[in-house]
Amino acid sequence: MLFSMMPGSISEPLKTRDGWFIFRLQEEDIDPAIKPSTEHARNMVFNILKERKAQKIGRDFLDQVIGGRSVSADGKILENVLSNLIAVLNENHKDQSLENGFELTSKISHQLMQRVDEKILSEEFIHFQKNPLSARDFLYYLFYQKLVFNSLQPQIVRAVLNKAVRQFIEDEMIIREGIKRGLDKRENIQSDFRTWKEYYLAQLLMQSYSDSVRISEGELKGYYLEKTNLPDLSMQVNIIEILTDDLNTVEEIFNELEQGKDFKELAVQYTQREWTKKNGGEFGYFSVKSGGEIEIIAASMDVGEIYGPLKVPEGYSVFKLRTQLGLQKLNKQIVNNTIKLANKYDVKINEQLLKKAELIELNTFTYRLIGFGGKIAAFPIAIPMFEWYELWKEGKVLP
After folding, report:
1. Are 17 and 100 contained in the same domain?
2. How far is Cα 34 from Cα 30, in angstroms, rounded to an integer?
3. How many other CB atoms are there within 10 angstroms of residue 250's CB atom?
4. Is the same domain home to 272 and 297?
């Protein structure tokens, strides 16, 4: 509808699942990253039309599965979760800017889980006729939804939480339909489930390492005096990022990197994070204390290394570590705990088989089509972590 409007025109009222909307088109512009005469532009048009058809088929299917069914949530439990969520968000927000939204990280979700009374967590929250879901089920769901709050005003937080509850119910309906059809018994589904389960469990373990690390002001100041003359002692990581909401663009970025294009030039061309575009995608130094995914990943990267795509609330992030400061403590914790776990579970690594694996120095990204127009990474993107292995073989740990 919006693409058919002229600047200054006002749309007819449009009803959506979130209510009624009326749009006024202020202005239109051409994306400089798209060159109309190139094959890339034609492919983008083809993919957009294909995705629209897939989404229409998906909406029709969801209407068949969900249409006419009524599932409610317990209002008192929702109010309890809301009040605790607002408190936890304000405790963690402090001086952080809301310019790009405040994300409900897995760390904050864990704090919320601990804050809600155990009795409330165990009570029935979503009233399905069979196998109703508890508040604990919902809070575990929030761990991986990456909710973003543009304001911490109670009415805004409430609106975001209400939307998450509706999405939780819809997702659960789709899951139950898949189980009803026996899709969960397929070997490829079970294999994928095991892979992603291990990935998320590893993420939670890494998060616990980040939470346990404490860096004193003296240690931080000493490191800065040794390595840099920067005056601000609270900033530790600097990355160059390309943010996009299109996995096809991610693929194009890796293709151009393989052709030798400069990462900063690609950031200027492709990134959708406007406030970094003028600096070639560069963030500037920011703290790792929040324990977010980018911070944890950056702690294990080498300067100049590229990582991604990482799913973030705004889409997909591909980033390059420019500099890192004061991260040895977290890295030491990760390395030494990995060595302990390898010893505990008597890990065996077939080095001969590993050496036979064919390796190419090619930046590639593979995604999988799911549902009706949906896409995810074909497999979890693991954090680079190998320093522990040689130490483990020699029976050592980092001092």
Report:
1. no
2. 8
3. 23
4. yes
In a domain, 229, yes or no: yes
CA distance 246 to 316: 7
Q: Are residues 144 and 291 in the same domain?
A: no
Q: Calculate the average pLDDT of the chain.
A: 81
* Amino acid identity at 86: I
The pLDDT confidence band at residue 202, using thresholds 50, 70 and 90, is: confident
**Would 106 be classed as within a structural domain?**
yes
* Residues 35 and 141 placed together within one structural domain of the fold: no
172 and 297, same domain (yes or no): no
DSSP category for residue 302? P
Ramachandran area for residue 280 (φ above 0: left; ψ -120 to 50: alpha; else beta)? left
Task: Evaluate if residue 340 carries a pLDDT over 80.
Answer: yes
Provide, rounded to the nearest whole percent, the portion of the chain with pLDDT above 90: 27
Q: Which domain holds residue 35?
A: 2-66
Neighbours of 42 (CB within 10 A): 11
CA atoms within 13 A on the CB side of 343: 14
Question: What pLDDT does 288 receive?
Answer: 60
Of 185, 213, 235, the one marking the end of a domain is: 185
Task: Provide the 10 A C-beta neighbour count for residue 270.
Answer: 22
User: Do 37 and 81 fall into the same domain?
Assistant: no
The residue ranking higher by pLDDT, 107 or 187, is 187
Check: CB of residue 10 under 8 Å from CB of residue 22: yes
d(CA 251, CA 309): 10
What percent helix, strand, coil does the chain show, rounded to 5? 50, 15, 35
